[in-house]
């Protein structure tokens, strides 16, 4: 069921942020190639960049990475679900580092991990899907329309399929796309490993 839900959303998803490869996420190996670190905005092509980093790490060290540390404020829903699908298919563990942040679609990537871990000081946050548009003065505005609300429902179903607690799913649905609700350790109990 996990794979079916992710595949459904990834194939159907059209809602996303403005995407600029110059501002794409980076994927760097650490700990002798046992881990990768994803940093930055999630944009189109990031799943391919992750796959390249994964294979490069394997070729360099002779083994595949076991986990991916996430540090991202989110980005494109479509690109995020492609990254989440790769994380799920490879069985990567997901971790939000001691001083790192994982918001928006990054939380779905986190949920796709075969094992999930956070520190007491890690920051995670959720909100509904939205369509990003530019105002007359050039500011980016998050708008909710029928399409983005439909994707919020699909995102919620995927989170449920990945075992997310009800509180995480409810906060994702209830938080407008131009806002953020931070997750507490209570929200994560029983779903993640807490690293002291």
What are the main properties of this structure?
2-enoyl-CoA Hydratase, Chain A, domain 1, 11 strands, 6-stranded mixed β-sheet, about 40% helix, alpha/beta, about 200 residues
Question: Mind explaining what this structure looks like?
Answer:
With 196 residues, the chain is α/β, with parallel strands linked by helices. It has one domain: 2-enoyl-CoA Hydratase, Chain A, domain 1 (Alpha-Beta Complex). Helix content is 39%, strand content 21%. The chain has seven helices and eleven strands. The strands form three sheets. Strands 1-2-3-4-6-11 form a six-stranded mixed sheet, with helices on one face. The chain has a three-stranded mixed sheet with strand order 5-7-10. Helix 2 links the parallel strand 2 and strand 3. Helix 2 packs parallel to helix 3 and helix 3 runs parallel beside helix 4. The longest helix has 16 residues. The termini are far apart. About 7% of the residues have low confidence.
**Which fold does the CATH topology refer to?**
2-enoyl-CoA Hydratase, Chain A, domain 1
Work out the helicity level. Answer: 25-40%
Shape estimate: globular
Please tally the helical runs, counting DSSP H or I stretches of 4 or more residues. Answer: 7
Report the span from N to C terminus.
32 Å
Secondary-structure-based class equals alpha/beta
Top-tier CATH class = Alpha Beta
Mean pLDDT: 89
Question: Could you tell me the radius of gyration in angstroms?
Answer: 16 Å
Order of helices and strands: HEEHEHEEHEEEEHHEHE
């Amino acid at each position: 069921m996990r794979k079916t839900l992710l595949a459904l959303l990834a194939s159907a998803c059209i809602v996303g942020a403005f995407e600029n490869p110059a501002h794409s996420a980076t994927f760097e190996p650490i700990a002798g190639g046992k881990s990768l670190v994803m940093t930055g905005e999630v944009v189109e092509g990031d799943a391919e960049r992750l796959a390249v980093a994964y294979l490069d790490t394997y070729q360099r060290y002779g083994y595949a990475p076991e986990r991916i540390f996430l540090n991202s404020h989110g980005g494109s829903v479509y690109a995020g679900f492609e990254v989440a699908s790769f994380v799920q298919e490879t069985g990567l563990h997901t971790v939000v580092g001691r001083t790192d942040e994982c918001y928006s679609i990054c939380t779905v990537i986190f949920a796709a991990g075969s094992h999930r871990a956070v520190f007491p000081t890690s920051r995670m946050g959720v909100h509904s899907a939205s369509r990003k548009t530019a105002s007359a003065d050039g500011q980016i505005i998050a708008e909710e329309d029928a399409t983005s609300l439909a994707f919020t429902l699909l995102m919620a179903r995927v989170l449920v399929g990945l075992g997310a607690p009800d509180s995480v799913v409810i906060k994702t649905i209830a938080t407008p796309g131009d806002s953020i609700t931070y997750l507490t350790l209570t929200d994560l109990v029983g779903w993640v490993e807490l690293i002291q």
